[in-house]
Amino acid sequence: MQVLKFGGSSVANANNIDKVASIILQKINADKIIVVVSALGGITDLLLESGALASEGDELYKEKLLMVETRHIETVKSLLPVTQQSHTLSLVKAHINELEDICNGIFLLRELTLRSKDRIASYGEFLSSQIIVAKLETIGIDAAWKDSRKLIMTDSNYTFAAVDFTSTNKKISAWIKQNKHAVTVLPGFIASDVDGNTTTLGRGGSDYTAAIVAAAADVSALEIWTDVSGMMTADPRLVSTAKVIPHISYQEAMELSHFGAKVIYPPTIQPVMKKNIPVLIKNTFALDDEGTEIKSTPPKNESNIRGISSINGVALLSLEGSGMVGIPGFSKRLFEALANEKINVILITQGSSEHSICVGINEQNASRAKIVVDQIFSHEIETTKVEPLNVERGLSIVALVGDNMKSHPGVSGKMFYALGRNGVNIRAIAQGSSESNISAVIAERDVKKALNILHEEFFETTYKQINLFIAGVGNVGSKLLAQLQQQQAYLQDHLRLQIRIVGIANSRKMVFSETGIDVQNWKPELEQGAPMSIEKFVHTIISKNMRNSVFADVTANNDIATFYDRLLEKSVSIVACNKVAASSSYEYYKKLKSLAREFNAQFLFETNVGAGLPIIGTLNDLLRSGDEIIRMEAVLSGTLNFVFNNYDGTRTFTKVVKQAQDEGYTEPDPRLDLSGTDVMRKIMILAREAGQHIEMEDVANNSFLPEGCMQGTVEDFYKELPKHEEHFKKLFTEAQETGSKLKFVATYENGKASVGLQHINPQHDLYHLYGKDNVVLFYTNRYTEQPLVVKGAGAGAEVTASGVFADIIRAGR
Ligand code: ADP
Ligand code: ASP
Ligand code: MG
Fold first, then answer.
1. What is residue 402's predicted lDDT score, i.e. its pLDDT?
2. What pLDDT, in 10s, does the model give residues 578-604?
3. Cα–Cα distance between 161 and 155 in angstroms, integer?
4. Do 186 and 34 meet the contact criterion of CB atoms below 8 Å apart?
5. What is the rounded CA–CA span in Å between residue 630 and residue 784?
6. Predicted pLDDT of residue 244
7. Can you tell me the distance from the alpha carbon of 431 to that of 646, in angstroms, rounded to the nearest whole number?
8. CA 723 – ligand 2 centroid, Å
9. Pocket of ligand 1 (CB under 6 A)
10. Which residues does the chain have with pLDDT short of 70?
11. pTM of the model
12. Which atom of ligand 1 is nearest the CA belonging to 232?
């Protein structure tokens, strides 16, 4: 005897039923076959909707019934040869008429009992099984139909009836003994009570029918044919990288389906497990795929986790109160109250202080639960021994399942760390004492993210994904994108890192794609994007709620920097090329740092000082390893270097400044560089990183730029500058006379920072600086005689982009 079950999508239309028929045909041998089928996919929903509409007095129910009729008629017409259609067509019509009569009655009475719901729903499986028998007969198979209602006996708990196994097993065995047909088709899902009324086994219950029959017939294996290639490591609709689980234990399959893996109906496992009958889950649409085998002792897998699943629509009930401590009977009364109301408890936790009990239930039952529980504890609530029941809605449960967890410590640590690092707040935790599942209650809006985080953590040892949002695609931003493209393969091969660009914005447009924007084609995509609004950009990053999100700010925009706190609070890491935030008020800088710590995000801004040079990173490494900064001396302005390296008395100062601007070394307003403001910001950032509470006004600036040059527009500035040529010349010759060069030096010592022009002699570490070079000398407790020197190009789009790139990788890991 073989038992095969085909689900709703496998029998959704004539085309699919053809596939089912050929699977059955191939299986035919001396061993008889029992085929259990679902209704044509979507039909059960339509039937139940018709009943509900009729009971509400809504005539739309007739349209729904018409849809039910059309689906079946069309299926028959395209499935069976014309000459063999009439019997099945009239059978369909007769039953649809009956169904219409029932719904008309419901419409008139405005009453829909659970019993009539089951009656209505039963037409789905009844018709599908009849149509399939007819199909099998037309291809020459000795096929018969058998009404499951004559075999499976239940109580009268309509829509969710409990099976009476004693009489059911007896009936099935007796029937099997006298059944002579090669193939018998049974409608799944439906059964009957002792009075002969139709009952159903709960939504998705055809799997259960098949398992009941398989167990009673003591078959060697049960095959469940569906539209996926087996039980998967996670719901494939939510986790695109979910993989088929080749082997799984009964216990694990039960836990996964109980916690939401829809691929099998949870009660299915019980009857077959008792008889040790293996279950094979196969894909009707991919015959060559191996599928999943469910049995008692499957081979171990690499990860100690077998799968991850989730249930939405959960409410958490918390009963709290000092009056509960040490007094027995509180939980008994709580659970009794819920049980009397037939409210199913999905999860339970109780702190060892016994101060509170927390239970997870279906959200739909929450209001009823609140009433009955408050009633049962009304005396304790009045006397303030217990608080009124606290109900929290909008929650979900995510569960990790695996029999091997118990022998491997650290699974829950890894689970909670991964969720926490990505800003998923955990409301309650439960671990069954069998230790084959750990479940966490989280907000429903975080479910997709949480599943993906956990899936990556436990199943995708191959890649780690960074979800990147970039604002600013000017010089540096576009170089960054080019570098990202060039390095994609390297990062995957060597760091097992995948950077997915989810959002890009410039000052005019923004574009998003959850599956990733093509780095080779970002320009046209951005051009077709929505108008840029920084509020919307930030809001989108937050609402996408993707794991391992990083925002790279490659602008110089003041407004954008004011949004960093909102992102960090949602555990989105920030990589800022933009100096505004780190050099704004100390209070904001500090706030961002502590938000990053609190919400497990990163706030990185290496390129704020010395472009791609590892200056802030080095400073942090020194401090973290216990060193102390005594003094820093630095040349941090590529612009000022360029100007003083090229100003040698042969050309006017104005000409040199103009050249620097033309060659792109200066800010649009060169005075920001010449006045030393930019260098002040940089040394302030270094001082802050060294632990100093310091603001811009605390940095002394011995500016060499005459006051007159600071007034008016850039144009005015270029008019004013030549008037001061003598002043600049004097600065130069004074230095030359002592054999020194002019350098604009930033210094930090004893908590004080200053910037200004200095004479640097050839013996000094700052003397040999060329082009756009920056240099920082760190004098520390460990580097006393000779400083630790970081030196190299401190400006330029390519090196800056590479610094941002390095920060992105750091943030993502
Ligand atoms: P059938 O109609 O064949 O009974 P179902 O729709 O009831 O099929 O169940 C199969 C569906 O279950 C799949 O299409 C898939 O989207 C969903 N599903 C949810 N979780 C899982 C999982 N962990 N593994 C496989 N499928 C899952
Ligand atoms: N047709 C029923 C349902 O949709 C039973 C099943 O498909 O398993 O719930
Ligand atoms: Mg199903």
1. 93
2. 999 999 999 999 999 999 999 999 999
3. 6
4. yes
5. 9
6. 96
7. 71
8. 89
9. 7-10, 38, 204, 226-228, 231-232, 234-237, 261-263, 307, 309
10. 351-354, 432-434, 461-462
11. 0.75
12. 24
Helix (H, G, I), strand (E, B) or coil at 759: strand
Strand positions, DSSP E, 363-496: 390-401, 426-431, 437-443, 464-471
Question: Tokens 């990183």 label which residue?
Answer: 689
- Distance of alpha carbon 693 from alpha carbon 703, whole angstroms: 23
Strand, coil or helix: 627: coil
Residue nearest to atom 9 of ligand 1 (CA): 263
Of ligand 2's atoms, which has the minimum distance to the CA of residue 202? 9
Distance 291 CA to ligand 3 centre (A): 16
| Cα angle 716, 722, 723; round to 5 | 90
Joined together, the tokens standing for residue 281 give: 């889950």
What's the gap in Å between 305 CA and the centre of ligand 3?
A: 23
Distance (Å, rounded) from C-alpha 24 to C-alpha 26?
5
**Catalytic positions, written as ranges:** 682
Instruction: With beta carbons less than 8 A apart as the criterion, state whether 72 and 14 touch.
Output: no
Enumerate residues lining ligand 2, CB below 6 A.
7-8, 38-39, 44, 124, 188-189, 203-207
Taking the C-alpha atoms of residue 646 and residue 660, their distance in angstroms, rounded to an integer, is 9
Token reading at 652:
């006017």
Locate the ligand 2 atom nearest the alpha carbon of residue 205 and give its number: 8
Residue 574, H or E segment:
strand 573-576
Residues 6+ apart with CB under 8 A from 247: 292, 293, 295, 298, 299, 301
Q: Ligand 3 centroid vs 38 CA: distance in angstroms?
A: 8
